[in-house]
Structures are given as structure tokens and as C-alpha cells.
Design a protein that fits this description.
alpha+beta, 6-stranded antiparallel beta sheet, 22% strand
Length: 414
């Protein structure tokens, strides 16, 4: 590993090359391949990650302050962090002059931290493959972006694997430009840096681990067991023929005789019979069920098939079944808040925003309504509306009720 400090200026081709070569992305790539089902096997990882992300982020966030940012990036950000252990939020100013964000996967980013505490990010190297034309042929090379708190510098890999200062673009360039207009005419342009490295990490958990790590061995064992069973069934789907005291060298001729004449010649002391091989299907089924239960147990997810088999699904039972998923989602929500607060800080450093997640919770609707009815008179009507499963917008619902009550009062006066 190259000895790099925060005081080094990353402009050397050798430094960039060494950082990329020593950037260990093996675990990230393996998890990504499993999630994308490159191997064509059972995709527990995809189901567990989508379950967690949708449970926590499918519904819009509730913020106590107005923030003019579209949060449609959140599910992708959360999914990438769950797969690779980290994803990166990259803010930029779009062509309309508005703050926008882009999700960058962990595979592409190498963070450089301060030398004293190894906590603050002082530079970011982002590298990704692009296609270029060399000698009239299309080939793949890396493009590199080196970001600090003010500028970005671009490099491009050449045929020898060295990284050269990129020409043909403004290089280096500030993070964004601000155009000042009078009567729709630009009278002044100012080039500006964010003052921070504009890459904010979303870690999957405090350990910065992928959701794949805890269940990797279990998933591989499950797929191996299932593949072995399928192979056995395929290999031994026909019976074996046991022949005693008779040797054959040309088995194709033997099988032709059996097929055509339905007889098998043997010696006086000989015998022949078919053998059926027993495949331990029941034992393997038990093994598969145990592995599957452990995948959901240690993956902290919910096996929805088992959930559907339940007859007495009260809200207490459902809450217990979702307890592990809820714990995992709560841990993830802490990391999301850390990431978003960095984004809010460049949007408005004085803005203090409280973030509330609206989880997608499965519940027994009839029981919920019954509890709301029983609570009337002990809590406010607004609290009843908030907890009623049919009410989507409490303020609108309260307004409608007031309007209906007003009409009733008017009719009574008439």
C-alpha cells in the first residue's frame, strides 16, 4: 500500500495508479454480482435488500423544514449502500442552476482522510471505465476525477496504464459556476467551490459492512445444496442395469439388443436386474429449510411465505415477526441521517432539519380500526385520525369532518 498523507497533492500518475491498484473492491464486486444474479442462483440477497430499503424508504420522508431537494435518489442510495457497504452522495448544480444530487457506487470511490484523526475526508478519487478509440478500435480505459474542497482535476489512462492530465476540458475546474444576470443577460460569472469535498458517504451500518457479509456462507451453502440435488436427479433419473457373470465390452450393442428383442443373454450362473438409486430428497429438503431459516434469521429479514401461512396474525404477532427487520432499518436510518445532514449543510448551513422515516408496515387493519374506535374519548381526534389506516392526509380529513358537521348544523337550524 502506498504511503499517502493528506498533505500530498494527488497529481502524480504513480500515486493515482497505486491507489487504484490497491483499492480492494473484491467484497463489493462479489456482493454486486450476487445482487445482480450474475450466477443465476437463488437471489436471497436481492429480496432482503429490497425488503429493507422499501420498508424504510418507499414512503416520502417527513421534514420539519422546507428543503427544495427532490429525494427520489434515496432508494438507489440505500440500495447501493446495502449491497456494497457504502454508497456516495454527490451534490452538483445542474444546468438550471438548481442543487441536484447523483448516487455514486462505492466501487468507484477512494476517500483520502486527514492524517491526524483519519476522520475528515480531504480528497476523493473517483475512477470509472470509459470507452475510447485507439488505432481505430474501441477500447476501455479508466477516467479519474480528483476532488478537493474547491476543484476537480481530470486524468485519463493511456495505453501504458499511466494517468495523464486530461486535455480538451477545463482542467482543473471549480465545482460549479454562478451566473449573475440583468434582464436575462449574464453580466458576471463566478467560479465557486463548495468548501467541502462534495462526496458524502452513506454507510450501511456502523461496521461499514454489506448486507451480504453475514449471510454469504449460508446463501452459498443453500445454492450448493440445491444444485447438488438437481444434479443427482438429472444424473440418476434412469435405473442402472446390474449384470452378473457376464462381461461386455461394447455396451452400445448390449443396449441395442435389449431395446430391440427385450431380452438379455447371460451365462448359466448369471443374472441381471435393474437397480434404482435412492436420492436423499427428504434430508436435503430439511437442510434447505434450515439454511433458509438461518438466511432470514441472520439477514434480519422477514420470510413473507411463512408470514402468509399464519392464521392468527394480530398486530402483536406481526410486530414480533418484523422486529429484526425494524432493528436493521433503524440502524440504517441513523447512517442516512448523517449523510443527509451533510447535504443539508451545503444547501443551507444554518438549517436544522429533523428527519422522520415513514416505514411501510404491515398490520392487521381490522384490529387497528377497532383500537381506534375503543380509544375515542381518551385521546384527541387528531391522534385517532393519525392512527386510522384509511386516513392518508390528517389535515384534509379533519377539514372534511368540520365541513360535514357544519352542513349538519345548518340543516338543523333550517
Amino acid at each position: 500500500m502506498i504511503d499517502l498523507t493528506a498533505d500530498d497533492v494527488i497529481t502524480s500518475s504513480n500515486i493515482i495508479k497505486n491507489l487504484i491498484q490497491t483499492h480492494d473492491t473484491t467484497a463489493m464486486q462479489e456482493a454486486k454480482d450476487y445482487y445482480n444474479n450474475v450466477t443465476g442462483e437463488n437471489n436471497f440477497l436481492r429480496k432482503l435488500i429490497r425488503q429493507k430499503v422499501n420498508y424504510l424508504l418507499a414512503k416520502p420522508l417527513t421534514l420539519d423544514q422546507e428543503v427544495k431537494i427532490e429525494f427520489d435518489f434515496l432508494t438507489d442510495l440505500g440500495r447501493q449502500a446495502s449491497i456494497q457497504g457504502v454508497s456516495w452522495l454527490h451534490p452538483y448544480i445542474d444546468k438550471k442552476g438548481k442543487l441536484n444530487v447523483r448516487v455514486i457506487e462505492g466501487l468507484e470511490v477512494i476517500p483520502i482522510y486527514d492524517t491526524e484523526f483519519q476522520k475528515d475526508i480531504v480528497q476523493i478519487i473517483r475512477y470509472y471505465a470509459i470507452e475510447v478509440v485507439e488505432n481505430e478500435r474501441l477500447t476501455t480505459r479508466y477516467r479519474v476525477e480528483v476532488w478537493d474542497d474547491q476543484k476537480v482535476t481530470y486524468y485519463q489512462e493511456n495505453a501504458e496504464g499511466n494517468y495523464l492530465f486530461e486535455l480538451g476540458v477545463i482542467n482543473p475546474q471549480y465545482h460549479f459556476q454562478m451566473d449573475y444576470k440583468v434582464l436575462d443577460q449574464v453580466v458576471k460569472t463566478e467560479f465557486v467551490g463548495w468548501g467541502v469535498v462534495p462526496f458524502f458517504p452513506l454507510y450501511n451500518n456502523e461496521e461499514k459492512m454489506s448486507d451480504f457479509e453475514d449471510i454469504k456462507t449460508l446463501i452459498k451453502s443453500y445454492n450448493s445444496t440445491l444444485t447438488g440435488l438437481a444434479t443427482n436427479i438429472d444424473d440418476f433419473q434412469d435405473s442402472l442395469l446390474l449384470i452378473k457373470d457376464k462381461s461386455y465390452t461394447k455396451y452400445s450393442e448390449l443396449m441395442a439388443i435389449i431395446k430391440e428383442f427385450k431380452i438379455l443373454p447371460v451365462d448359466d450362473t448369471g443374472d441381471a436386474k435393474y437397480l434404482t438409486l435412492e436420492i436423499p430428497v427428504e434430508a436435503r429438503d430439511r437442510m434447505l429449510n434450515i439454511l433458509k431459516e438461518n438466511i432470514y434469521e441472520f439477514g434480519m429479514g422477514v420470510d413473507t411465505r411463512k408470514l402468509a401461512e399464519g392464521n392468527n396474525l394480530t398486530n402483536v404477532v406481526l410486530k414480533a415477526k418484523y422486529a429484526d427487520l425494524d432493528l436493521k432499518a433503524n440502524e440504517f436510518s441513523v447512517e442516512i441521517i448523517k449523510c443527509l445532514k451533510q447535504l443539508f449543510n451545503i444547501y443551507n448551513p444554518n438549517l436544522k432539519v429533523n428527519i422522520e422515516f415513514n416505514k411501510t408496515v404491515i398490520f392487521n387493519e381490522s384490529e387497528q380500526i377497532d383500537n381506534v374506535i375503543k380509544s375515542k374519548g381518551t385521546v384527541s381526534n387528531e391522534t385517532l385520525m393519525i392512527n386510522h389506516p384509511w386516513v392518508k392526509d390528517v389535515k384534509k380529513e379533519m377539514s372534511k369532518i368540520e365541513e360535514e358537521m357544519s352542513k349538519i348544523d345548518d340543516n338543523m337550524i333550517e
